[in-house]
Amino acid sequence: MRDTFARLLATTMCLMLALPVAAEKLLYRHVDKDGKVTYTDKPPKENEKATVVKVDPNVNTIKLNSKDSSGKEQKFSDIKERGDARAALRDKLQGEIKAAETERDKAKKALESGQDPLPGETRIVVNKGGNSIMRLPEYHARISGLEEALKKAEEKVRVAESNFRRTGPD
C-alpha cells in the first residue's frame, strides 16, 4: 500500500512538471532546397533540417474584455459582430461596383452601336457636285444623350470603387 502511494505520488509529480512543457507549442522553420521557407507545428522528418522558432504567446492575440478606444469594455462577440458587419458592407459595396460596371458596359455598347443615324435623323442635300447626307439635330441630340449616359455610368463606377476603398483592406 505504501509502495503504491509512493508510485502514485511520483507519477503525479512527473505529470505536474511536464504540463508546462506540453502546453508550450513548438513552431519549426524549414528551408527546402529551392529556398522555400515553411513554418509548421509538426516536427521535421529525420532527413530534414529545421530550426525551432521561439513563439511568444502574447503576440497576435486578442485580449478579451479589453477596452476599445472610447474606454468601453469589449468582448470577443463585439469584435466578431463588427467584423461580420464590415464583411457584409464590403460585400454590398462590391455588388454596387459590379452593378455600376454592368451599367457602364451597356452604355458603352449603346454608344458604339448607335453611331449610325436612325431613320428620320438624316436629310439628303442635293448639291451641284453631288448629293450628300446631312445629320439632323435629332441625331446629334441622341448621340449626346448616349455620351452623357456613358459619363454618368463611368462616374457611378468611380464613386462605387471609391466607397469600397474607403472601407479599407480586409
User: What is the residue-mean pLDDT, rounded to a whole number?
Assistant: 81
Query: Strand order across the biggest sheet?
Result: 2-1-3
Structural class: alpha+beta
Terminal Cα span = 63 Å
Beta-strand fraction estimate: 5-15%
Major beta sheet, specifics?
Answer: 3 strands, antiparallel
Keyphrases for this structure?
single chain, 170 residues, alpha+beta, three-stranded antiparallel sheet, two-stranded antiparallel sheet, 3 helices, 5 strands, 53% helix
Topology:
Elements: H1 2-23, E1 27-31, E2 37-40, E3 50-53, H2 76-113, E4 122-127, E5 130-135, H3 137-166
Antiparallel strand pairs: 1-2, 1-3, 4-5
Helix pairs in contact: 2-3
Structure description:
This protein is an alpha+beta fold and 170 residues long. The chain is 53% helix and 15% strand. It is built from three helices and five strands. The strands form two sheets. Strands 2-1-3 form a three-stranded antiparallel sheet, with no helix packed on it. The protein has a two-stranded antiparallel ribbon with strand order 4-5. A hairpin with a 2-residue loop joins β4 and β5. α2 runs antiparallel to α3. The radius of gyration is 36 Å and the shape is elongated. The two termini are 63 Å apart. About 3% of the residues have low confidence.
